Amino acid sequence: MARFLQLYCQRQLTRQKESTIRGILCIMDRTYTITFLDRVRHRLNPLHIYCRLTCLGVSTRVARGICKIYEVSLYKIFLGR
Fold first, then answer.
1. What does the DSSP 8-state code read for residue 1?
2. Domain ranges for the chain
3. pLDDT digits (tens, 9 = 90+) for 1-28
4. HEC sequence for the chain
5. How many CB atoms lie within 10 A of CB 45?
6. How many CB atoms lie within 10 A of CB 67?
7. Nearest alpha-carbon partner for 67 in 39, 81, 48
């Protein structure tokens, strides 16, 4: 019974992922052209920086502190909307 439930849950998750991907692709077809500034904002977004720091092995606490300072002192001033 446990194996059945595990397989059932995996199938449901796969279906949800597929429908989500289809939805995202559909939305992407309707979106505007991504500008250079949009790309810069994405790459320099504090959350993006946080993820890259943690991927590099920086502790979450230190990465969070760095990103808070970065967001307040640089990001909001130069790239924030």
1. -
2. 1-31, 33-81
3. 566 655 665 666 566 666 666 666 555 5
4. CHHHHHHHHHHHHHHHHHHHHHHHHHHHHHCCCCCHHHHHHHHCCHHHHHHHHHHCCCCHHHHHHHHHHHHHHHHHHHCCC
5. 15
6. 19
7. 48
